[in-house]
Amino acid sequence: MNEVEVNINEIYNLSKNILVSYGITEEEAKATVNSLLDAELSGVSSHGLMRLKSYAQRIEAGVINVKPDIRIDKDLDSVLLIDGDNGLGQVVAHKTLKICFDKLENNSSVTAVVKNSNHFGTTAFYSKQVADKGYLSIISSNAGPTMAPWGGYEPLLGTNPLGASFPAENSNFVLDIASSASAKGKIRAIKNKGESIPKGWALDHQGYDTEDPEQAINGTMLPIGNHKGYGLSMMIDSLCAGLSGASLSYETVSVGSAKRNANIGHFFYIINIDDLIPLDNFQTRMGDWFQNLKNSKTREGFEEIYIPGEIEDNRKKNVKDIICLDEIVYEGILNLATQRQV
Amino acid sequence: MNEVEVNINEIYNLSKNILVSYGITEEEAKATVNSLLDAELSGVSSHGLMRLKSYAQRIEAGVINVKPDIRIDKDLDSVLLIDGDNGLGQVVAHKTLKICFDKLENNSSVTAVVKNSNHFGTTAFYSKQVADKGYLSIISSNAGPTMAPWGGYEPLLGTNPLGASFPAENSNFVLDIASSASAKGKIRAIKNKGESIPKGWALDHQGYDTEDPEQAINGTMLPIGNHKGYGLSMMIDSLCAGLSGASLSYETVSVGSAKRNANIGHFFYIINIDDLIPLDNFQTRMGDWFQNLKNSKTREGFEEIYIPGEIEDNRKKNVKDIICLDEIVYEGILNLATQRQV
Question: In this predicted complex, what is the ipTM?
């Protein structure tokens, strides 16, 4: 993989203008690019700017609605059902967060289940915003089927991520974990380097544990912790799709496919910490806890103990005006910009 | 380990009467024994009747309150803060569930965070009751520190379990997973058989990966999926203790210790499915999904695909009037009954 140095402002505007050229509003295009760029700067390229091309392909195929009427289908006391009207996942999630924050003006907790959405990027992008508001969150999305149920080898489950966040004294806790041992994107990167993958990550198409990344890509991902990741993925499917009427992972399509509407589901659970414990006290206590963990002894092979989200946060803080992008991703965006005359 | 066949009614009454002899009410004693017996019959002996002895030791040491005034500290729109007044965990959880079910008469969701509690058994025991009511749940508890943060080897985190449940057509989905790769109880059982443990389960007291169960018991448990289980354990600590004011795992004591109050925290999140989707439709759809997963191809070494909770449910259904108990556990209960003159 060759990398090129790219000016952040330039790539931001280019990406945003591509989306605007399809009829997406300025605000919604910004929300989308903010999510992709946040992932890119945090070192999570698998959810970064490489996604723009597949979003554009889906828009051009007519399976994403660029003018969605995102609406509240049910507004219950503490629970909301949101219809994303097949908008870009980031656009739907951006609006959903706003609705949740409004609801939290008068409520101690809010649960929003979302249907008719699409790939929304990382959960971390949203859960950081929640923590910045002084709230605690659990945020999830389901995804296309790439993982086998425990004991099987047909791809019927998503690598559905579990996100969680809360604020502490000098930083946020930001958890964003897939329910699979690894991700196809990561395995592709290993394949490009000509290396092999560890056992326990994936099965080949006949259901045998494989160390060959090529076989893994044509096979299925394995859940983390055997039956545990399997159960976690199902729990997330029930929250995102079971409660909302979105497609379950086995009913939807991969984010890379432009064949049909995805009807992806999301789950947002947010609680107003300050209603239970004065926020200052909570943040101080969490900060002390983090220090205790970080000050504890490291084992051989580790130099530091990190709080979930800290590594990504450090990476992002170290970026100035320039990022390194995969050359193929950068050229893809340039080509798209030329096509769209932006 | 020698096993003895025991009549279920006999052991139920004996256990209940032991608790009653300490001044616990009939209803609260039943709630406690129901939890322990449910785990035992489901094959989860680590949370079964073997726990009664440590509960009794803690009661006798005066670090559990047998007449707790379990009260609602804060009753917000959709969020409750419950003070368990240092009652037995099962007693506190039993009352909390009741309060939650009452709240759900008029609410679409309820979150209850609980402080001043103790070891409450399995999350599955409570989440099954929630699913039987037609609700969906996420239920957790924190626990004493036995697990290292990722990259470290000091026991600062609990093997905090994540529980989740919802009802389907012919069965419930019941997830109950520890955030550690294994549990000390399981490692003790392996040690008793003279066998070794797989790498990745535990570290010795100097922080080295060990296959020796003895070294593991004196060392620390490892999280599932490396940094993932670590983050999961922290998330659960924040929900159970951060929000409620209970002790974080690193501040509390092991359930086996009778030195001081534990101030364990719990988290209950329950949502009324029928407010979002007609319950019948939800259950039918989930049932179809389960069938699809179960009908998919199994890989070598597996004969069947199970839905989370199914194996435990099958075990319980196969029990008639008799269970097999560890002889040491049974004799411990008999001795306790003699001491307590019940």
Answer: 0.97
